[in-house]
Amino acid sequence: MQQNTAHTTATTHPLTHTIGDDLVVPRMGYGAMRLAGHPDERRGFTAPIWTAPTDRAETVALLRRAVELGIRFFDTADAYALGENEKVVAEALRPFAGEVVIATKVGVVRPSPTEWVTHGHPAYLRQQAELSLRRLGTDRIDLLQLHRIDPAYPLADQVGALKLLQDEGKVRHIGLSEVTVEQIREASGIVPVRTVQNVYNLGERGHDPVVDHAAAHGIAFLPFWPLAMGDHAGPDGPVTVVAAVARELGATPAQTALAWMLHRSPTVIPIPGTSSPEHLAENREALDLRLTAEQYTRIDRATTPAAS
Q: What is the pLDDT of residue 88?
């Protein structure tokens, strides 16, 4: 990609992050949530994520292509397609055991294709982790995240269930999803919190304080829905500004949005998901894209809550 030399020197960002003290991964991951059902059923916020992918061979090939491109972090959950997502991820990545990090989540039940219900009973969390171990074909989960905090049970009991699994050697590292700074602090008093996975993108920056807290404490921040830019299509809105910066960089708007996120904090690891080999490669290339300080600031100003 050609850089526009009319701008100031490009800023830099670290290309890797270490989860805990032992899992070094490039700062571009892959979110496997959408790998379910028929390809036409995967789009939009209401996608069911209910059954195994009908294009299983293509899905396996896509995940293996991700490894070829240098992606080493893969995110799934027991609730995605009732465990079928974990199975296909395990099948695809088995040849790369020891080279990749697979993260999964527990704490959400799926009574139907349209329901996602938080359930944090400690015994249930431990049971689901045991099932994830079987589906992933491993003796230890690299990263187990609490999918959602259930207000029906004390946070200490839910995190404590994950810590028990860690003490038993069945989980390497523990993370949280959709949490506040206060909840991270509370959980950190029980077990080291290595990752936080919250919704975060140029159209939704409500978790800016969490991004900053994670950076200050060396916690990996895994933004999901990282490529959404909201409906701000005005001349000073993120869609327009990102498109302008993308033209200056000779990049796509999606790559530019991901590059901004990588510059936003050194512990951010975006996990965009896609069924397209072309988009997969495009997303991976964003890791090598450099914004100038002026370009970063221009996008930042267009996407902060005060400017939206």
A: 98
Using the predicted structure, report yes or no on whether residue 280 has a pLDDT greater than 50. yes
299 part of a folded domain: no
Q: Domain range holding 111?
A: 16-231+266-275
Residue 148 lies in a domain: yes
Q: How many residues does the chain have?
A: 308
Residue with tokens 């003290």: 21
Identified catalytic residue from 80, 124, 200, 296 = 80
Whether 80 is a known active-site residue: answer: yes
Of 64-73, 230-239, 259-268, the one with minimum mean pLDDT is 230-239
User: H or E element: which one contains 233?
Assistant: none
Higher pLDDT, 5 or 107: 107
Q: CA-to-CA distance for 190 and 161, rounded, in angstroms?
A: 11
303 in a structural domain: no
Mean pLDDT of 92-99: 97
When divided into structural domains, the chain yields a total of: 1
CATH of the domain at 48: 3.20.20.100
* Residue 208: CB atoms within 10 Å: 14
Asked whether the predicted pLDDT for residue 7 surpasses 50, the reply is no
